[in-house]
Write a structure and sequence with these properties.
2 domains; Rossmann fold; NAD(P)-bd_dom_sf; Ornithine cyclodeaminase; single chain; ODC_N; binds nicotinamide-adenine-dinucleotide; ornithine cyclodeaminase, domain 1; ODC_Mu_crystall; NAD
């Protein structure tokens, strides 16, 4: 039996994604999403893995991020344009597709700008659970743009972080971030320098956007025992940490062939030892092994995280009404009569409109 309505694909718009997230609750959404992300990292061997396909230009990058676990296939389209905020646009926007591997038909199309912020933050927090000191309570958050509140929410929901130290070169960004987080129950202080923000911090999250080798953190700013969650350096020629910090850190990455090109470790020799985070999640490799160790999660974002996010959203959709059905796939009555479908449409268009 051929199912009806093969032309229709569930589509989650920005408005529907926001309603879904709010209905589930931001904290619950982050926690459940984190479980899906960790679960998929634990099935690492099952995934078809490729470094994302990037098209670079003077002001940014457009990337495609595909992966498959053999049953579902997913990809995300995402851009990164640090100058965009000056023209009222987001630095990062995204949408993604999940498809059934058996027949290749898409089963979900979704906005992923909000979903990317949630999945990036959830991934950071899961990694920190294995890499930060257990009693970590204070996080410096440097770069207070679109990602920042999501990072704060994920650390508050998934780790013991209860205090935030904010710093941004644009003080209005820090003020917005503090205002938006007013009801979350975090102790928040705006700092006037990055040095002040990292003073006494257990975790340092960097989420700045600049298309250059930036030095958001210098070596003297990172003391023993700190966990660095480096989110903003995610493109060739776009980093945030001084190289000397990398040399003192134990470095954890998502998929090393991609991170060696895009992450902080592009500053290091191609054979510098790093640990893929799935090895830590599965217990094959240790996470933090001493109180004084500096751990660095050199996050660039990997396709499985988006796959997990789409898989999670799909699992939550039924019965919510937070999607529409898009007439996206041509579905002629007889599969090979695609041209005939066009002819029938032409005939329909010629029919005189009833008065
Ligand atoms: N690792 C991942 O998976 C992942 C996912 C999403 C975004 N990102 C990256 O995270 C970064 C932040 O993204 P966003 O959407 O929040 O960008 P955004 O443009 O909204 O915010 C960036 C903020 O950084 C601030 N900033 C720039 N230079 C700074 C400096 N030297 N010191 C302090 N603050 C500085 C800006 O004023 C701005 O407020 C981008 O580089 C983006 O590409 C990474």
């Amino acid at each position: 039996m051929v199912p009806e309505n093969l032309n229709l694909v569930p589509f989650v718009s920005v408005e529907n994604m926001m309603d879904l997230v709010l209905e589930i609750g931001i904290d619950t959404f982050l926690r459940e999403l984190a479980e899906f992300i960790e679960e998929d990292f634990r099935r690492w061997e099952r995934f078809d893995k490729t470094a994302r396909i990037a098209s670079h230009s003077a002001d940014g990058v457009i990337e495609l991020m595909p992966t498959s676990d053999g049953r579902l296939y997913g990809f995300k389209y995402v851009n990164g344009h640090p100058k965009n905020t000056r023209s009222g646009r987001q630095t990062v926007t995204a949408f993604g597709v999940l498809a059934d591997v058996d027949n290749g038909y898409p089963v979900l199309l979704a906005e992923m700008t909000i979903l990317t912020a949630l999945r990036t933050a959830a991934t950071s927090a899961v990694a920190a659970r294995y890499l930060a000191r257990r009693e970590s309570a204070t996080m410096a958050l440097i770069g207070n743009g679109a990602q920042s509140e999501f990072q704060a929410r994920a650390f508050a929901a998934l780790t013991g972080v209860r205090a935030l130290r904010l710093y941004d070169t644009d003080p209005s960004a820090s003020r917005r971030c503090r205002r938006n987080l007013a009801d979350v129950g975090l102790d928040i202080r705006i700092c006037s320098t990055a040095e002040e923000a990292v003073e006494g911090a257990d975790v340092i999250t960097t989420a700045t956007a600049d298309k250059q080798y930036a030095t958001i953190l210098t070596d003297n700013m990172v003391g023993p025992g700190v966990h660095i969650n480096a989110v903003g350096g995610d493109c060739p020629g776009k980093t945030e940490l001084h190289r000397d910090i990398l040399l003192r850190s134990d470095i954890f990455v998502e998929y090393s062939p991609q991170t060696r090109v895009e992450g902080e470790i592009q500053q290091l020799a191609p054979d510098h030892p790093v640990t893929e985070i799935w090895r830590v999640f599965t217990g094959v490799a240790p996470g933090r092994s001493s109180e004084s160790q500096i751990t660095l999660f050199d996050s660039v974002g990997f396709a499985t995280e988006d796959f997990s996010a789409l898989r999670y959203v799909r699992s939550k959709l039924s019965g919510t009404g937070h999607y529409t059905e898009l007439d996206m796939l041509a579905d002629p009555d007889e599969p090979r009569d695609l041209y005939g479908m066009l002819l029938r449409r032409e005939a329909q268009r010629r029919e005189p409109v009833e008065a």
